[in-house]
Specification:
It contains 3 helices and 17 strands. By secondary structure, it is α+β, with helices and mostly antiparallel strands. The protein folds into 2 domains: 2-105, Pnp Oxidase, Chain A (Roll); 114-244, predicted glycosyltransferase like domains (Thrombin, subunit H, Beta Barrel), CATH 2.40.10. The strands form 2 sheets. Strands 9, 10, 11, 12, 13, 14, 15, 16 and 17 form a 9-stranded antiparallel β-sheet that branches. An 8-stranded antiparallel β-sheet has the order 6-7-3-2-1-4-5-8. The model has no long low-confidence stretch (mean pLDDT 85).
């Protein structure tokens, strides 16, 4: 897949880690020589790119090959300025990355995510917690992250923040999920990469639910979440039909 993408100068997405967040930029493959691959750089991110080169922190490149999607992580070895790769185009900036042995296929999302509206009566409380802390213990106040529910699936929840939270990728989370008048569900989760929304002011992160299959109570929560998500899907279909009419 990777060889084909490079040969075709395929489009890709470059993910640049930055202070606990990830910045996503469109890029494309330019060429491959020996154990190096070149992708188009992002001139607006030169300061960040130079810091990533100095720290040898890997970046991620994701791309499609036909109907399949794959990704790889690699450190940036060098930033090349004013490179001429194509006779029909002007010179551009390019990033020289270590060529991975192989790219990893990206699995499609297992669960359908449905948007959550204000009228759906959802509320969430989340805390950062240490690895060995028992989920039923009272969480530390500094770990609380004020947030709202963006979308929901049986496997996780999308969360939105009005201000940038202090949150690392793969952070263990303690979640209390409220729906209507029902008792809250206490769930363990793991955070994905924090992303700034297009309005430039709010942030979102996906949290993947953990260990629900390992207990009777957890499996009951899966049943409850399935019922809730199906109800949200039905409401969303009704809204869509109403708007179409």
């Amino acid at each position: 897949m990777l060889t084909q993408a490079i040969e075709r100068n395929s489009a890709a997405v470059l993910s640049l880690p930055s202070a606990g967040m990830v910045r996503y930029h469109k890029t494309r493959f330019l060429r491959c020589v020996d154990d190096r691959v070149w992708v188009e750089s992002v001139p607006a991110e030169r300061v960040l790119i130079e810091s990533l080169i100095s720290s040898a922190e890997p970046v991620e490149v994701s791309f499609k090959a036909g109907s399949r999607k794959a990704r790889f992580s690699s450190p940036i070895h060098h930033l090349h300025c004013d490179c001429k790769f194509f006779d029909t185009e002007d010179a551009l900036e390019a990033l020289e990355l270590a060529l991975p042995a192989a790219a990893k296929p990206v699995q499609r999302r297992t669960y359908y995510r449905v948007p959550v509206r204000d009228s759906d009566r959802f509320r969430i409380q989340i805390w950062r917690v240490a690895e060995r802390v028992h989920l039923n213990d009272k969480p530390p106040e500094p770990g609380y992250l004020p947030s709202g529910v963006l979308d929901l699936s049986v496997g996780g929840v999308g969360v939105i923040f009005q201000v940038r939270p202090v949150l690392a990728t793969d952070q263990r989370m303690r979640i209390l999920l409220y729906h209507g008048d029902s008792a809250p569900m206490l769930i363990e989760g793991r955070s994905g990469a924090l992303r700034r929304l297009e309005d430039g002011e709010r942030f979102e992160v996906g949290i993947k639910f953990q260990n629900l299959q390992e207990s009777l109570k957890g499996r009951q929560m899966i049943t409850d979440l399935t019922r809730i998500v199906q109800g949200l899907q039905l409401q969303e279909m009704k809204r869509t039909r109403g708007n179409a009419g």
